[in-house]
Design goal:
The protein has 1024 residues and is an alpha+beta fold. It has a seven-stranded mixed β-sheet with strand order 5-4-7-2-1-11-13, with no helix packed on it. Strands 29-28-30-32-31-33-34 form a seven-stranded mixed β-sheet. It has a six-stranded parallel β-sheet with strand order 38-37-39-36-40-41, with helices on both faces. A hairpin with a 2-residue loop joins strand 42 and strand 43. Helix 2 packs across helix 4 and helix 5 packs across helix 6. The longest helix is centred in the middle third of the chain and has 26 residues. The chain is elongated and about 140 Å long. The N terminus and C terminus are likely disordered.
Amino acid sequence: MNNLFTTIFRYLAIIVPLSLVMHTTISAHEPSPPPVHIDLAVSFDLEKKLLWGTSRITIDKDHDLQLSFPDLRVTAALISSEERENAPLEIQGDTLALPATDEQRTLLISYEKDVQDSFSNIISERAIILTANWHPLPQHKALYSLNAQLPEGFTGLSQADELAETDDNGQVSFSFSQPLYALTLVSGRYVKARKTIRDDLHVYTLFFKEDQELAPGYLEAAADYVRRYEKLIGPFPYNHYVIAENIMPTGYGYPTFTLLGQQVIRLPFIKETSLGHEILHSWFGNSIDVAYDSANWAEGLTTYLADMAYRSDAGEGPEARKEAIQRYRDYVNESAPLLGEFYGAGHQRRENQARRAIGYQKSALLFHELKLRVGEEIFFQSLQRVYQTFKGRSAGWQDLQKIFEDLSDQDLSNFFSERLGRNDLAVLQIKDIDVEDGPASTSVSFSVVQAQDPAYELLLPVSIETTTGTQKFQELITDSETALSFEVGAAPLEIAIDPDYDMLRRLSGAEYAPVWSAILGASECLVVHGDDSQMDIYEPVIAFVEGYGCRQTRPADLSQQNLEAQTIIFLGTSSSHMRNSFGLPAHPAVGFTVDVRANPFNRELAVALISSDSKEQTEAAVRRLSHYGKYSFLHFDNGRIQEQRTPTTESGIRVELEERPAGMALKALTEFDELVDELSDKRVVYLGETHTSRPDHLLQRMLIEALHSRDERLAIGMEMFPRSSQPALDRFIEDPDFSEAEFIRESRYYEVWRYDYRLFRPIFAYARKHKIPLVALNIDREITNTVFKGGSLEALSDEQKAQLPTQMRLDLEGYAERLKSTYQMHGQDHGGGSFAGFIKAQALWDETMAESIVGYLEKHPDTRMVVLAGNQHTRKDSGIPPRVAARIELTQVSVQNLATTRASAAELATTTDYLFLLESYEFAPQGKIGVVLLEKDIENGTTMEIVEVNPQSNAGDAGIKKDDILIFIDELAIHTMDDVRLALLDKAVGETVRISVMRDGQEDGVRVDMEVELYSPTAPPGHP
């Protein structure tokens, strides 16, 4: 029996696109009419949950019979033929095999079944539902009739040519002219309602009394669906259709009726979605069923013409197709079956999702591609031909292919074989872009590369956006690289490949959003426990995700390698790994939250942050999680969804050719003072800079002075100094005897920053004069260097770890991508650290500055702050501002100088709040002596030894020699490199300085004085 049922159930068709248990019949290519006729009669004992049945089976001559009795007690069996009537027949076990003979035979079997209520079968005072294994089952389809004796007040339903009426004695009879493998019997204390579509076609509801008010809406919707699909395909295959209610939450579909659970029927969206899917199966899946020797095509076609079509009606077609692609990407791997091997969904959670992604989503996208390939008119003509040809019969993929080929006059063999026989995705790339302006039009040329091997045959959609609109093209490509060229009538701005998701392909990084299905579909998934005290709260989550193959681990056992190579689920918000990568998530305090983030170390993976305030909240929500795979953020309260969202991503594989310029009417320009008035209302004002730009620092000076004049309660936060420099900053502001030279030395300015001190000199002077606090925001470079080289925070000492911010977010939108670009250009050349170390080091910088800002403002609640930092740090999307916002609620804005920024208009719109336009001169180069100095330790301190004299400079002609010890510049004693920088701070090229050196040794040498004209080094060839 096991082998028989393996064969049978392999061809089950899953009918409804709900996450419910579903059921239908299967079929094979067989002679018509079938050689077996089965007449059933059943009655019931409700109290004992007992079924009594008899089965009269007629077997035509020259045909065998294999019969199974699943969970049935056969009480008697007789067989009759022309030569012998009612001969006893012994049945051993739960199967019977009768070989073919040259005469017709009749088999009479009586049996009993104890029905223990299950998802498939129920005998109760409210309803009798029999959907599986309740009568003897043949190995091939048969013609059925059924007579049932029902309890008083019950109405019966089964597959039938006419909707049968239950008489006053509880008798009801059914007869169906379409061969089936098995019958279903539905009966209960129903209220029947009817709607006439036309004289020979009616739709009905059989609902329980308490749900009868739902009947009119279902009848109207059912009638609309029937009319819709009759126009597209052909006449409805039956003379009636019934929507029946079940006690269990089912979504079963059968010829002439659907069986929907009471919980399902009450869902408001079922009429707009799944009901139409069920009714469409009357044409494809029931009237025409899937051939025995074919994979299941009916589910994909029904999904496309129902579920996806309804989304398209609502203007959401591209979105629906993108969700299907993302679901396929998240669940399907090399172990999943091919579409040409799909018969039905499996039972394991992850396997079931993968099979559904193939049999429903991929198959639906196949039909969408097919419609575009042959054209909409031929597509529906072909479906009509399929229905006309195979109504009441079985059809396979090959049958559909032949009809589409005949009507379209196209060879579709590669199209079907690739999509049925491969699971890999097309990976498309654009290269070699060229734009040429001709006398009459502009040509846009480029090559499309298929990175997978072998290439697919694809009808490639291409959109080219121009200044006057979007032009759309299609091109059939078959090679691994295809050169394309298109003529456009205006300036081309952007190329987009497949912007409406008309094919199954790999989503590019800019198109992909991390969603819950990426977690459930991961091949390598780790669940990281939170506090031991909260283990009980998250037990239901652990049990749920284990069904998808996730493994558990403790926070102490989680490594950086895990974070980079595996999908991670963090339970609770206490894990240091979680806080050091994603910060403290702003989850609601009450309820259950799933927060899926991009993995900053690996864009191919996602990370889920899950929080809950109780085990009850967790249990209520977990039961529903499998329905919300397309979302990135979910919040439930007592099992009810309160919030669901997914971030917006790009549509299509896009390459910008030219930026569409942004601008403004000059009358909208705002005067400096008016803008400063607006800025003065903000608690934090970020003044971005290019570190070498004098205009940027001049703008900073002007704004600081203007803001301070309006409100003296101001502090200046500075990226340039680590917090260890704070004592020197404080002393510089408070102690008038603390010289500028001492300030530079003690703050270690040239060690921690190194850029031209003259840029900040007027800002420091103004702050000192008006006693404006200077606040060191940054972290010591030694710490970030260690993290960069070591790749994780674990390389730090305990003392260094104590200086770390309490949380870090590496997953802010665009942050990892921006830093990865920088790392690939520069990071690998500076210390050999990994990208994981680079992004963590950069985040340490941003998070420390945010924490410093918040700490100062919390201690000084009446003070506002101007923050001086690089433009990338002051970005309002992924720099310091969102990290401050995560710690404290306040008003903050970001400012840049339009004259010096290299950002595009689109980037400025997302990164900056205010733009000023200030151009000015740059400082003249500082004069150089023209020597290379080495700082050496001596007994009483340090000394500066001249180790090289630049022949391009004037130093050699003035008398300076290698090995001289530099002791004075214009009578300023020189001991360190800082002394040299201070001595030359205001010296320009061409000025003369007096140099004193010790020659022939520090102790016994001779002092030599000379004058040297300062010069500016010539850049080496190829340098700017």
